[in-house]
Amino acid sequence: MDRRERIEARLRAVFAPLALEVLDDSARHRGHAGAASGGGHYRVVLISERFRGLARVERHRMVYEALAGELRQEIHALELSARCPDEPAGQLEGVGE
Hints:
This protein is α+β, with helices and mostly antiparallel strands. It has one domain: BolA-like (GMP Synthetase, Chain A, domain 3, 2-Layer Sandwich). 31% of the residues lie in helices and 28% in strands. It is built from 3 helices and 4 strands, in the order H-E-E-H-H-E-E. The protein has helices spanning 3-15, 56-66, 68-73, and strands at residues 19-24, 40-47, 75-83, 93-96. It is globular and about 35 Å long. The protein starts with a helix and ends with a strand.
């Protein structure tokens, strides 16, 4: 199982998402100083009932807690869209670096 698959599996286990997309954008960031440590760049779209009634910062905190082990060593940057099923799609909220 590669890094992207591990991230996806962890998010599925914690959030039981209705939709989940994990994209590895690491290749676009080759040569980036922060990527030198080997941490990847990822984009995540996560739609889950678990986010209902929560502010964006609370949703992001939940995702960071779920990925705590990976964030320390395997994820350098994370673009995140975390929303409820009835919320419209918006732009990704950039996080990381």
